């Protein structure tokens, strides 16, 4: 369960990136975070991960107040989260497989176990045959699915994806979204930001942001 209570974020004194946002997201939901560029989508996602802290208000994940977490406790939170953020590029000097293994290696898994789990993650996103490739040799859509594999290799409870379908054509965007939806079907909470309205009807709920405020939220009638 993710809860925002009267959360505001100001990067500078007179400009709000988020303004008095209150919302709650239950376990297992597939949420689309919609709204134009600059609306505050990335800021909202970064707050769930503790990357940005609220200027006022409270963000909690599973009952734990994120802003009260010590820096040393952040890795424990992050382990519950699968992050697909825009500034976390794949490393081009190593294979797809070792990119996906990285989060496991960092947390001290043995290389045998890391490789095994990374291969399973690549299978789940439909790219088992790209393990040995360099990221640069893959299409944009495939690279985005590698980023998803890397995000889920720690078996997170919550996936945060910031504009995962940006710059992709419809077919590749569908594949990326399909991969994310498969995790939601398996019980993982997914929060996906997008300014692309063509996918909104696939969400269990759409939260629409404008100028840092939630201006609309609706449940999709078409959602599976
Ligand atoms: N690190 C930052 N420093 C200053 N302003 C920022 C920073 N990050 C975001 N902003 C501002 O906050 C607002 C919301 O940004 P953002 O959350 O990135 O929106 P979105 O992801 O919906 O495009 C924008 O006006 C943006 O310029
Ligand atoms: Mg953004």
Automatic annotation (TrEMBL):
The keyword Oxidoreductase does not apply. Transmembrane segments: none annotated. GO terms for molecular function: ATP binding. Residues 2-223 form the ABC transporter domain. CDD domains: ABC_MJ0796_LolCDE_FtsE. InterPro entries: AAA+_ATPase (IPR003593), ABC_transporter-like_ATP-bd (IPR003439), ABC_transporter-like_CS (IPR017871), ABC_transpr_LolD-like (IPR015854), MacB-like_ATP-bd (IPR017911), P-loop_NTPase (IPR027417). Coiled coil: none annotated. Pfam families: ABC_tran. Signal peptide: none annotated. Keywords: ATP-binding, Cell membrane, Membrane, Nucleotide-binding, Transport. The keyword Lipoprotein does not apply. This is ATP-binding cassette domain-containing protein.
